[in-house]
Amino acid sequence: MTLIANVALRRVLDSRGNPTVEADVLTESGGFGRAAAPSGASTGEYEAIELDPAKAIAAAREHAIPRLVGDAHAGNQREVDAALHAADGTDDFSGIGANSAVAISMAAAKAGADVLGAPLYQHLGGTFRGESFPTPLGNVVGGGEHAKEATHIQEFLAAPVGAPSVSEAVFANAAVHARISELLDERGVPAAKGDEGAWAPPISDAEAFEVVDEAVSDTESELGFEIRFGLDMAAAELYDEDAGGYVYGDEVKSTAEQVDYVAEMVAEYDLVYVEDPLDEDDYEGFAELTDRVGDRTLICGDDLFVTNVGRLRDGIDAGAANSILIKPNQIGTLSDAFDAIELARENGYETVVSHRSGETEDTTIAHLAVATDAGFIKTGTVGGERTAKLNELIRIADDAV
Ligand SMILES: O=C(O)[C@@H](CO)OP(=O)(O)O
Ligand SMILES: [Mg+2]
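A: This is the predicted complex of the input protein with magnesium ion.
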């Protein structure tokens, strides 16, 4: 029933206005799935390779589609993803492009769910999923590679850890985002938005900490449940070997100073989450920081692990980080993303399912987070491509998908 009868690929727009790959998968019994690849700006060096979408589509049409149509079953995700790997023939998807691969992998999962008549999260995670939900990490202030002339730290993330429901958590992040706008206004700071819809004000990181802290406390008092915040430092983008460390405008911090700085911020602001506090090659620095503050906060590897089982294993051996960001397009297929999640679980690492800065209306990651019982999902706060996922979480909780 789930035998793949057709795969169609096309270029569509992403939220930055760039082209990306969209895939339609149709099964012989009429099951249908559609998904599109997201795209990063602060990409990790070790991510699977995203090709120019036109080239990725041409390569997938030549190599992948013939292996899928009439041969692979959309309901058998491992079979689909193995066919994608075989068609690609490399270890980084540089043959057909991770963008083609992930779009097809996710579209096949949706087609499989469609044939079953089950919501995607149940097809991926089993019938008993859908009872617990991830805490949404909401990007409310940011800069780095996502906005010019704003903070050096890429993302300040609201985390409504005490919200009684996922819906209240989603609205809490929107309330923090709105409160920040008022606080910036009071300070006379004009703010545009960055790629993910976070405010991108021309203020120092120190001032951003103050503003976010105040907005979170105000919203917490207003709503009556605990809200904390965290960071994605995207430190690989700050790190410059020639400069001798992490570059914050005119200031350069050595690795030791960077570790001290992050540890101090964790203590001062009671941060619940710090992603990529050190360079993507610095397992040792990650291990040292995890040793210092890992009992109090999540130290998460994004560019460090790139959703890659091999790199995660190295991190586990080194004691680097205590959580992993999961981005299916970093590794190319849902099966590979699941393997990373499983390995993380077995070793006590928290999992955080994530969007990219360049997104589409695709909602797969909302289902993936519920299917795998992830502790957190990072998918922005406002903006249609972000609310697509957040609203899908609300629908899943409401049994309306
Ligand atoms: O660094 C990140 O975690 C992501 C998403 O927030 O950004 P990008 O997609 O640009 O890599
Ligand atoms: Mg990141």
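The mean pLDDT is 98. The radius of gyration is 20 Å.
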